[in-house]
Amino acid sequence: MDLKASPSTKSYAANKGVDLVALARSTGRTTLGREDVDAHLGGNTAMAAAPNHSRYWEVDHAAHGPVTEEPMPRMAKIAAANLSAAGALIPQVTHHERADMTAVDALRKAWRAEAQARGLKLTALAFHVMALARCLTEFPRFNASLSADGETLILKNYVHIGIAVDTPHGLMVPVLRHVDRKGLWELSAEISELAARAQARKIGPEEMGGASMSISNLGGIGGIGFTPIVNPPELAILGITRTETITVWDNDTPRAVQMVPLDLSYDHRVINGADAARFLARFTSLLSTPERMML
Q: What is the model's pTM?
């Protein structure tokens, strides 16, 4: 078989104990990426960890009325296997908070002309990414993974952040590399470029692995909060929804403040509630004084 896989995929499969040739034969595919290895491991892990409840889905829906069928996209099937494994194995907790976006909004307005001159749209997401990178360096247990047997905590000396992108062919999570070494303009350009390539299905498998932590941003759609699912082998994920106007009282004086809801889901095997509270407290502090992140 003429198997096609990048050197990083071959190394990744070898470290995970996956025979790529056998995987190619079982799937009928000749081109494999890291997500195929993860899907293979995730599917096996999920089936081993959870009882077989497939009988609940074995229903003749057409007996109850007209139906149509459409195949699940390949990316959606891969995500389903990973999320099933996560739900079966991770004791997940979600901590909720809000962050004052007044200073971020002021900077975005002040720098709008410069952003346009650079051919960029300066979004709030770029500030979130910068703040998250700072927090990951200050809270190393969030920038870590558990070994497969759960016995060893692997602390990472790099900061890579995954950005969940909703596409017509399924959810994709391309990864920004070495975020802690980059400035606001560079990150803005990379976020925009990765999102555009994800929509065009031009993201390679090697660009969707190795994240320290991921962000799921629903702010452009709506909502006041949700519970994002941790994407293994990461230990946490940050959810963001739409900024809202909240009344804050300064003694007896009401003040309207733009606040963004934040939802931090984490693996309770490694991260405790107090850890998550401190992490988001620091994150919200950074967003309230964004100029300090650029020093």
A: 0.79
